[in-house]
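Ticket opened by: R.M.
Priority: normal
Category: complex prediction / small molecule

The reporter submitted a protein together with pyrazine-2-carboxylic acid and asked that the result be attached to this ticket for the collaborator who will pick it up next week. Submitted input follows.
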Amino acid sequence: MVDVQRDFCPGGALAVKDGDRVVPKLNRVIGAFTKASLPVFFVRDWHPRNHISFKDQGGIWPPHCVKGTPGAEFHPRLKVPRGAVVISKGTEARSEAYSGFQGTDLEKRLKEAGVRGIFLGGLTTDYCVKETSLDALDAGLKVNVLEDCIKGVNLRANDSELALRKVVARGARLVTSSDAVRLVARVRKPLRGRSVLASSLHGGGRILVLMIGWAGHAAVESSS
Ligand code: VGL
Ligand code: ZN
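Result attached by the on-call engineer:
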């Protein structure tokens, strides 16, 4: 979950059109993953008051997501489970961090959790979703962008489109939240070790290929 914060939603300091519309769909994904005991990570923009990206500091953005302020809170309807992993980025005054991986321990946390692929959505398509996706690909992860769970700033009208084109060209897949929920529901069924993985491998097709990473993860979890 990338930057699903008040300031990026209507009424916020850096509001994105329809930013809040991603919340119900992301909640469905969060629910499905949680039920399947799959980890969900919550990335947030968490700036000091004098952040370099702010206009009064020479940056291009109005002040937003100042740590500890209401605007930096997750959207009030986002279902953040108790004890969820929260990753704060952009916390250094002198450096911008659009990616959830930049200056954080996100990669380490994902590796520790045995994660080989991710589904991501949130705000904003042309900045933090884009950069987080690219860094995830660089980290060797399979990246599935939840195309119905993202909204962009679009300083130029087609920025979001260009961002998606770029991440797809680099190897990410576009999927819907329904795809993700369906996949995870299958992972939840009892797995009988490697035979299930093997039969998935022979199935071919986009969805089955996607499932392998998660089935592998579930198998590792259930055997520990
Ligand atoms: C973001 C602009 C400035 C984002 C963060 O979350 O995409 N955009 N800071
Ligand atoms: Zn920011």
